[in-house]
């Protein structure tokens, strides 16, 4: 119709963010790429997203990949026997989870820019995570209720190694892991979450390590990290 704009800038901004994060289906991505070819303003929106997202990693220092990563990749590709995962040796051992933290940050940035999360309203009332081992041998579902100040953790599959227990940890940004307690041998657990920790839940990581009975004796994980999951607003 004459006089109406040929595009919806807000909708294109959302699509540009979803495209930059790889959230579009192949069909929708192809359609968006066609729009970028035709419309300069759409290319500009995508360029702005790409620049903003790239800046999120500016302060992350370079780090060598874990020594066990290549054997595990070789095992996936060529059937070579993987090297057993080393026990946890200080909280920096969670470095292999940094990719999940960056993904969570990108998702939260998208939520703020698209209006899904009000930047003036603080943390969302509900957040959730799937805490899973790479091979699916241990899977837990966690749901955070800010109003109730409670984290509900439900075991789906898996158990602790013989003579060990599973301990739940919260890792937020560069902070050291904070223990959320030892999980029961089976069934669900309700973990009280104070306001300080609650503010760190969305975008953080939940991880499970195997520890001696009673939990870590040091206040930091001492056993192998068995599963992890990013906490996302719902």
UniProtKB/TrEMBL annotation:
<dbReference type="GO" id="GO:0016989">
    <property type="term" value="F:sigma factor antagonist activity"/>
</dbReference>
<keyword id="KW-0472">Membrane</keyword>
<dbReference type="GO" id="GO:0005886">
    <property type="term" value="C:plasma membrane"/>
</dbReference>
<dbReference type="InterPro" id="IPR051474">
    <property type="entry name" value="Anti-sigma-K/W_factor"/>
</dbReference>
<feature type="domain" description="Anti-sigma K factor RskA C-terminal">
    <location>
        <begin position="101"/>
        <end position="225"/>
    </location>
</feature>
<dbReference type="GO" id="GO:0006417">
    <property type="term" value="P:regulation of translation"/>
</dbReference>
<dbReference type="Pfam" id="PF10099">
    <property type="entry name" value="RskA_C"/>
</dbReference>
<keyword id="KW-1133">Transmembrane helix</keyword>
<dbReference type="InterPro" id="IPR018764">
    <property type="entry name" value="RskA_C"/>
</dbReference>
<protein>
    <recommendedName>
        <fullName>Anti-sigma K factor RskA C-terminal domain-containing protein</fullName>
    </recommendedName>
</protein>
<feature type="transmembrane region" description="Helical">
    <location>
        <begin position="94"/>
        <end position="112"/>
    </location>
</feature>
<keyword id="KW-0812">Transmembrane</keyword>
